[in-house]
Each structure stands twice: as structure tokens, then as C-alpha cells.
Design goal:
Helix content: 40-55%
Strand content: 5-15%
Largest sheet: 3 strands, mixed
Number of strands: 7
Radius of gyration: 28 Å
Structural class: mainly alpha
Low-confidence stretches: 7-12, 53-57, 296-300
Distance between the termini: 64 Å
Shape: flat
């Protein structure tokens, strides 16, 4: 379930009870299986507190966190009849005990590394004052275009994230206390992005290659071109989701120009990705094309 779909009771949006209702539907209305299920809450960072003013009711932030507390601590949840699609089960109310349900919450938490950095990096003023190791690493990557090194520094800070940082980000202490384990994931580096481009069964590169084969054209990417695409995604900070848009921009004009021409192979290099040169085209020989025309005419006769 997505955390951004839940709203505080009485407002537009889904109630938190709908999360358990979805789990019950996934368990085929088996209450025992539902009470031993797993609930994955995505986009939890989007329900952080937006306002520090206690007089402002944050219906999509702190209110949702308060409503989720009773599910996390373990309680009997009555599933509303309107959330049950089967009419046979609407006669009797269904109660689910959430004590043994495993809750996993995730989110991007963009910018939380700055909170960890401000907590860890302590700068001293004056000549001869000691400089912490984290501050020295931060100074080395400051005002530089080495984005991969910056990501590694941010990953090092995320390894030391604790409950205090989550509270400062906007998650209420009661919610953090009911999530005992906190694990940070590493950023996607260049090698991982290249793997995402090429290795999966239905990878993005294979999709574009198949589109070109429909016009009897072979699409070739050099290793440097794949590295350049990954580096561009890192610079734009779009991650794996931005790979398709980068490829679309690189191949947009080619997909309009190549079909119907005498081109049989298109090679994409690093210079093409960086918009420094045009792609390399391999065309059919005139003699071969004439032979093909003669054979085609003979078949028609």
C-alpha cells in the first residue's frame, strides 16, 4: 500500500483500515492468514509533518501517522463493510488482530542525508582547531562536479542514520519507536545503472533494439555509450527511472530518419549521447540494393 493514499479520518482519501482490507483480500478472506501477513507501506516519507504549528491540522501528514500507530502496536481492526467487495461477507463484521502482522515501511526520504550531516559534522573555529574526518571528506567533494563521489559521501552519512534524524525529518517519535529496525540502501552507481539498462529480460536497451529490428535495422550501443547514459542519469539525479527519458532523447531523431532509408545498422557512441557527434550509420551497397530490386521485380513478374 502507498502511504500517500491514506488520509486522516473524515477527509478525502482512503482510511488506514483499507490497508488491512487489502491484506484480507490478498489472503482470500482467510482471517488466520491475514493476521500472519506482511504489509509493505511505500512512500512513508510523504506523510511526514509539513508544519510545526500545532494549531494547523496536517491531514495527510501527522494525522496519518497517528492513525497508523494503532495498527503498528497491535489492535483489533474492524473492516468496514464498504471495503469488502464480496456481498456474502457483509452480513458479519470482520475483525483482524494486527499483533502478528509484519509492517515494512519505505521511502526515498530526499534530503535526510543533510540532517545526518549536520548532526555528525562539527566544525571548529580558530587556527589549529581539529577537523573531523567527516568534515574533511565533505570539503573534498564540495563545489565539484564529481557526482559519483558525492553520492558515496551521502551513502556514508546514511549508514549512521538513527531515530533522531527521522524525527527531525518529520516522522513522529511514536511512529519511529514502533519501527525498531532502520536500514539505508546505497545509491545506484554507474555499473548498477548499466546492468539495469542491459541485463533484465525486458531491458530498456533490448526494447529499443527490437523496435529497430522491425525496420530491419540493427541498433548497437558501445560500452562507452552505456557508461555515458548512466553517468547522465547520475548527474540529473533521476536514477533508474530517468534512463528511458535519456535514451528517448538520444534516439528521437534517429527513429524518424532511419526507417525507409538504406541504413542497416546504427551505432551509438559516447559522443552521440553527449551530443557531440552524429551516430555511425552503415548503409547497404548500391550493387546489393540493385540485385534486391531485380529479384523483387522478378518475383512480381
Amino acid at each position: 500500500s502507498s502511504g500517500i493514499n491514506a488520509e486522516y479520518g473524515g477527509y478525502v482519501g482512503e482510511d488506514v483500515e483499507s490497508i488491512i482490507a487489502k491484506l484480507l483480500i490478498a489472503a482470500d478472506f482467510n482471517v488466520d492468514k491475514c493476521q500472519r501477513g506482511i504489509v509493505f507501506l511505500d512512500e512513508v516519507d510523504k506523510i511526514s509533518m509539513r508544519s510545526k504549528d500545532v494549531h494547523v491540522r496536517d491531514v495527510s501528514g501527522e494525522g496519518v501517522q497517528q492513525a497508523l500507530l494503532k495498527l503498528l502496536e497491535g489492535t483489533l481492526v474492524t473492516i468496514p463493510e464498504r471495503l469488502i467487495p464480496s456481498r456474502k461477507l457483509r452480513s458479519e463484521p470482520i475483525q483482524i488482530d494486527t499483533t502478528n502482522i509484519l509492517f515494512i515501511a519505505s521511502g526515498a526520504f530526499a534530503g535526510i542525508e543533510k540532517i545526518v550531516r549536520n548532526r555528525k559534522v562539527k566544525r571548529s573555529v580558530g587556527f589549529g582547531s581539529p577537523i573531523s574526518k567527516d568534515a574533511a571528506i565533505l570539503d573534498q567533494t564540495k563545489n565539484k562536479e564529481n557526482f559519483e563521489q558525492q553520492l558515496k559521501v551521502n551513502d556514508n552519512f546514511l549508514k549512521d542514520i538513527d531515530a533522531e534524524d527521522l524525527v527531525n525529518y518529520g516522522i513522529i517519535p511514536e511512529f519511529v519507536g514502533r519501527m525498531p529496525l532502520c536500514v539505508s540502501l546505497m545509491s545506484l552507481d554507474r555499473e548498477t545503472l548499466v546492468t539495469i539498462l542491459t541485463q533484465p529480460k525486458n531491458s530498456i536497451v533490448s526494447q529499443y533494439k527490437y523496435m529497430f529490428t522491425l525496420d530491419n535495422i540493427e541498433l548497437v550501443f558501445t560500452d562507452d555509450a552505456l557508461d555515458a547514459i548512466a553517468e547522465l542519469a547520475i548527474k540529473k539525479r533521476t536514477g533508474a527511472r530517468g534512463l528511458r527519458s535519456i535514451l528517448e532523447n538520444v534516439l528521437m531523431d534517429i527513429m524518424y530518419e532511419v526507417p525507409g532509408s538504406d541504413i542497416t545498422q546504427v551505432t551509438i557512441t559516447r559522443q552521440v549521447v553527449e551530443q557531440q557527434s552524429k551516430p555511425l550509420y552503415k548503409r547497404t551497397d548500391k550493387e546489393d540494393s540493385r540485385k534486391e530490386e531485380k529479384t523483387a521485380a522478378a518475383v512480381k513478374i
